[in-house]
Structure formats: structure tokens, C-alpha cells
Specification:
Radius of gyration: 20 Å
Number of strands: 0
CATH class: Mainly Alpha
Oligomer: single chain
Strand content: under 5%
CATH topology: Helix Hairpins
Distance between the termini: 72 Å
Shape: elongated
Length: about 110
């Protein structure tokens, strides 16, 4: 029962941190990982309390690992493209404006 309560408190605090720290992409990814770990802990505590199998735990663990790998690879590619990991730099309008103003790469042969 203690594990159940700890996981619910963890989900609450991780969700609050996800909503409040929205300046850098790395902060968002770490908050998402905290939410996933607390949900894993929650599903594990439910499965042990009711004596169910832990198939859901393994599926969530797989999704958490895939989400972490995909998030970090997107963060690295964004850092290489933009040079920073600010959430405000993710606007698609600034991406299009950045590519259309750079006409030095367009050359006529």
C-alpha cells in the first residue's frame, strides 16, 4: 500500500514539474521520464496488490525505453540544427523563416 501511495505522489509531483519547467526541452524530457517511472511503479504496485501478472509493467517499461531513446535522439538533432534546446525555438514559423532567408545556398550554375 505504501508503494501505491508513493507512486501517486510521484505522478503528482512529476506532472507539476512537467507543467512548470517548460523552458528547455531537456527539462521536459526528464519530467516525462519521471512520469513514466512513477506510472511503472504504480502499475507494479497494482499488479502486486491484486496478484495479477506483470505484463502491463513490461509493456510500459518497453514504451518508456523507446520514448527515452526517441526523445534524446530528437534533442541531439535539434541541438545540431538550432544550437539550443529552448522550447520557444520549436516554432515551425521560425524554422521556415530561417530556411527561406538563407539564400546563399541557392546558386545557379
Amino acid at each position: 500500500m505504501l508503494l501505491f501511495k508513493v507512486s501517486l505522489i510521484g505522478v503528482l509531483f512529476a506532472s507539476i514539474s512537467f507543467c512548470s519547467y517548460q523552458t528547455h526541452t531537456l527539462n521536459l524530457l526528464i519530467s516525462l521520464e519521471a512520469v513514466m517511472l512513477c506510472l511503472l511503479l504504480f502499475s507494479f504496485s497494482i499488479s502486486t496488490m491484486f496478484g495479477m501478472s506483470s505484463h502491463l509493467f513490461l509493456v510500459l517499461l518497453t514504451f518508456a525505453a523507446c520514448e527515452a531513446a526517441l526523445g534524446l535522439s530528437l534533442l541531439v538533432s535539434m541541438l545540431r540544427l538550432r544550437g539550443n534546446d529552448l522550447v520557444t525555438a520549436l516554432s515551425s514559423l521560425s524554422f521556415c523563416a530561417q530556411n527561406t532567408t538563407d539564400k546563399s545556398s541557392l546558386s545557379v550554375y
